[in-house]
Amino acid sequence: MSISVDMTAEWILLGGLVIALILSVATGPAAAQAVQGAAGSVIIEEGETVSSVETVAGSIVIEGTVTGDVSGVAGSIRVTEGGRVGGSIVGAAGDVRIDGTVGGDVNAGAGNVRVTDTATISGDVAVGGGSVLIDGRIDGDVQAGGESVTLGPNAAIGGELRYDADEFTRDGAATVAGGVVNDPSLGSGAGAVTLPNGAATVYSLLANLVLGAILLLVFPAFSARVAGRVANNPGKTGGVGLLTLFGMPIALVLIAITIVGIPLAVLGVMAFGLGIWVGVVYGQYAVGAWVLRQTGRDDRWVALVGGLVGFAVLGLIPILGSVLELVALLLGLGAVTLGVRDAFQSRRQPGPSDRRTAFESGFTPTESGRSTEGTADNS
Predict the structure, then answer these.
(1) Model confidence band, residue 348 (pLDDT cutoffs 50, 70, 90)
(2) DSSP secondary-structure letter at 28?
(3) Distance in angstroms (rounded) separating the CA atoms of residues 260 and 275
(4) Given CB 3.0 to 4.6 Å as the disulfide criterion, which of 1, 94, 174, 317 pairs with 321?
(5) Which of 192, 97, 93, 89 minimizes the C-alpha distance to 147?
(6) In angstroms, rounded to a whole number, what is the distance separating the alpha carbons of residues 146 and 358?
(7) Helix (H) or strand (E) holding 71
(8) Where, by residue number, does the polypeptide cross the bilayer (predicted)?
């Protein structure tokens, strides 16, 4: 099935917006003192120095120097052999790997945690993961919980090791100055994350499917218009999503400057966090609906399941998966923002009596076989 030149141009425009966003993140550290915000990937390249990293990203890679702390939620967090973090690392990720130097502590929950033979950590380590490997030098204490905890031959722990694991392996050459203690209480301790990668992915997918089903059932017409905006005007929708992603946090900070605005800012942060989740689900659903429509079908439930499952699988691909998930987020967030804007405008200016009927309707097939989802307005 052919795709119109105008539609192709819209998707190219959206791709350009995403590439510009990723490039701004990748090149930002050279000119900025701190890296903050959401991004597809954050890379501190060899020879670069920044003061800190605070982000939600597909991946965080430290090849250069971070003089302060690194904190974030990401698909993967890595300090390469030549990388150096002067402060501490606090994060949650699918995979955490330390090959370089960390001057402070490491607190992480991940599917896999690896401290390799080239790593040096001056502080304490508290980690939870599906599997934990320690094969480097750690000057402080270590707390580790997971399905498996392994001490390699190069492990040199200056303090005490406390662990809770179904399987514990210690190489004979590993040294632990403060002794080794099996502590079952770590399994229920605060901050322990023991879900393996596969379980975390399935849990996230199920949660997204539940939210998506609620959105389709409670807001059928709004959901149809979201998919319609993405299909008919992806460039504008993605651009609005990009502005919302970066503009809303700035607005919340400005609101919080005044004492009166602090409670509003707190509520705004909570609402924005929920909006990000809704945007992710709506974006993946909308892409699924667009792909399904190319086959000549319109089925919102198939689109929901296909879109979310498809992105869950694509998300397992390093870098590319993160980029595609970012595209879906921008599309969904932009469509929701435009939809909320239109809702406020329609409440100010009541329209014809059939407006309520349109709101309550879901996917209504037209004579051409295309649903109203595909004929949503292009605003």
Answers:
(1) low
(2) G
(3) 23
(4) 317
(5) 192
(6) 52
(7) strand 70-79
(8) 205-228, 240-264, 270-292, 301-320
